[in-house]
Amino acid sequence: MRKLSHLALSISLATAALSAALPAQANLELADKSACLNCHDVSKKMVGPAFKAISERYKGKADATAYLAEKITKGGTGVWGTIPMPGMPQVAAADVKTLAEWIAKGAN
Ligand code: HEC
Fold first, then answer.
1. What pLDDT was estimated at residue 75?
2. Ligand 1 centroid from CA 21, angstroms
3. Which segments in the chain show pLDDT lower than 50?
């Protein structure tokens, strides 16, 4: 009996871990589908800054999500260096909001 309940506990823990990982996976797939990952990585600097570095920079800023969403749609330059971020107007507004929120919260 003891073994069985242990097994049941590990199964429910594994399921919980899996469902917690799913939203992150969905956001990563959205970023991939939206071509963001051509220039960005979650934790490494590529052409553009790492999503985690962006989150660090705007931590505690009240309007970070709105600011980032606008920057994603319109693009811009000069914040991280001289390479411009192209505007991404083809990405739907709802997806931009999801990506901006995800990045602002640390891209986990
Ligand atoms: C062609 C390369 C490229 C693509 C594609 C790209 N980015 Fe960027 N991104 C950059 C660069 C370069 C910067 C730094 C711009 C700067 O210094 O102002 C940047 C900056 C950012 C920032 C920080 C803005 C700031 O003002 O601090 C966010 C957020 C961001 N990108 C999100 C995205 C998302 C989400 C996508 C996909 C929809 C995307 N990027 C697609 C190159 C790219």
1. 98
2. 24
3. none
Q: How many residues are present in the chain?
A: 108
Distance of CA 67 to the CA centre of its chain: 15
Compute, in angstroms, the gap from residue 25 CA to the centroid of ligand 1.
20
The token duo for 70 is 């606008």
Contact by Cβ (8 Å): 9, 72: no
pLDDT, tens digit (0-9, with 9 covering 90-100), for 87-103:
999 999 999 999 999 99
Question: Taking phi first (over 0 means left), then psi (-120 to 50 degrees means alpha), and beta for anything else, what does residue 54 get?
Answer: alpha
> Around Cβ 99, how many Cβ atoms within 10 Å?
23
Residue 40, ligand 1, Cβ within 6 A:
yes
Q: What is the pLDDT of residues 50-63, one digit of tens each?
A: 999 999 999 999 99
Model pLDDT, residue 21: 65
